[in-house]
Amino acid sequence: MKLLALIAVTVLFAQTVSSFLDRDATARYLKEMEIELELENNLKALSRARRVPGAPDARSCGPKLVKLVLSVCGDICTPKSGLDIATHCCADQCSDDYIKEACCP
């Protein structure tokens, strides 16, 4: 009879510990899921800017500036009075009028 009681207590103890460990593992899993979802949302916010066309205050640097000059002037830039549009347009937004005045023949 004592052996049966000992086995019953051992099984009950094992189930209690098992249930506690499962809750701990579940809580840890839920925390990891929250972190992953938060990271995913942050990454979506960061990557969105690269996939969406430029905002009104978008700057033009390098190849983007060359394409902009070609679209405005129809030809490559022929700078007037030594203006450096690359530095200006990369630091701030350049309007089409500024590019016409600085580059277009």
Major sheet summary line: none
Terminal Cα span = 106 Å
Q: Average pLDDT value? A: 77
Number of domain modules: 2
Computed structural class: mainly alpha
Q: What's the Cα radius of gyration?
A: 33 Å
Q: pLDDT under 50 segments (min length 5)?
A: none
- Give the overall silhouette: rod-shaped
Order of helices and strands: HHHH
Please tally the helical runs, counting DSSP H or I stretches of 4 or more residues.
4
Q: How many strand segments?
A: 0
How much of the sequence lies in strands comes to: under 5%
- The level of helicity is over 70%
What's this entry about, in short?
This protein has 105 residues and is mostly helical. Helix content is 71%, strand content 0%.
Q: Which helices and strands, and how do they pair?
A:
Layout: H1 2-51, H2 63-73, H3 85-91, H4 96-102
GO molecular function: hormone activity
Main location: secreted
Subcellular location: Secreted
How would you characterize the overall build of this protein?
- One of its GO terms (cellular component) is extracellular region.
- Keywords: Disulfide bond, Secreted, Signal.
- It is found in: Secreted.
- This protein starts with a helix and ends with a helix.
- The longest helix has 50 residues, at 2-51.
- With 105 residues, the protein is an all-alpha fold.
- The model has no long low-confidence stretch (mean pLDDT 77).
- The chain contains four helices and no strands.
- It folds into two domains: 1-52; 63-102, no CATH class.
Descriptive key words:
105 residues, mainly alpha, 4 helices, single chain
